[in-house]
Amino acid sequence: MNNYAKKVLVATLIVLGTIVIPIGLYYILPHFLPFLLAYLVSLMLEPINQLLINKGKLKRIIAVNITYFLFLGVFLLLIYFTITKITTEMFNLIGFFQENIPNIQSWILNFYQQFQDFIQLLPKEIADQINQSIKGFIQILTSLDLISSIGSHTYNLTTAIPNYFIITILVFISLYLFSLNLHKINSQFYKYFKDSSREKVNIVLSEVKLATVGFIQAQFILSTITYIISLIGLAILDIRYSLAIALFIVIVDILPILGTGSVLMPWAIFSLTRGKMFLGVGLIILFFVITISRKIIEPRILGERIGLGPLTTLISIWVGFKVFGILGVFFAPLLIILFNALVKADVIRYNIKI
């Protein structure tokens, strides 16, 4: 096979790989998610196990039991805190929002009427589109029944609890077994490769492992920072249901494009137009504090832990979200990480010059 044919074959395989691998992951991966999650957590706990083994002179089974039950205890505490505190506040917040829908409708109508003169100056097509959007949004608010909706979702969640319980048990059993046998699994895996290939495989797996664990850690650190800043800011502004609102801000912040501004800025504008200057200005300040903190911390954390720039990470998250939904938010960056690892190990070679 000549060089040209080799290049064509490699290019074809790369194109097919970029198409087939994501589609395969989309359909196959959900069935293996409990085991994948358990394996990733075992990788995150492994440095603690090694510390206890090397520094504490403990046997592996003892070290694994210590880290496993510590992790289990923290997990159960978080579940208890979420159920007893945040869930209660979330239901109260939804009830409060349902009661104030008429006030929100009134504010939107007043705001809309005040800007009618400006809207009329716009081209007719744009003005009609704005009017239809606002009227449609008001109709949605009129027919919105959050209490009934939450009731039906709560029923669905309750009926799904046995399934979630089985999955959780499966994850923790797999986590314990992975942690106990991680070194054996790795050594057994390398036996399937020739000596000449092991170095490349080791580079790829090391890069992917570090970047994957680093990505999870980076998202956790950034979300924790956002939650703490939001909670402190909301507490200073004396906002009710601050635990639930801070969690909602974090969830929205994880989703591509939206960010904290999609929650805080409309709320701030609403408060200012209602004459609540302290609350409105405070929410704007909180938005800038969160944004500036993330802009300072995010590039360093992402760069150090996963080796991807913020722009590359944002693009991969957005494309993954649009193509594969919420799972794509997490797995699209991992495909970029895998590709970079294959290039670094010299498994994939490309040299594009124009």
From TrEMBL:
Segments passing through the bilayer: 7-29, 35-54, 61-83, 164-182, 210-237, 243-270, 277-297, 317-343
Keywords assigned: Membrane, Transmembrane, Transmembrane helix
Organism of derivation: Vulcanibacillus modesticaldus
Lineage: Bacteria, Bacillati, Bacillota, Bacilli, Bacillales
Compartments where located: Membrane
Cellular component annotations (GO), alphabetically ordered: membrane
The family this protein is said to belong to: Belongs to the autoinducer-2 exporter (AI-2E) (TC 2.A.86) family.
Pfam families according to UniProt: AI-2E_transport
UniProt record, GO biological process: transmembrane transport
Protein name listed in UniProt: Sporulation integral membrane protein YtvI
First and last residue of the signal peptide: none
Topological type in the membrane: Multi-pass membrane protein
Main location: membrane
Domain of life according to the entry: Bacteria
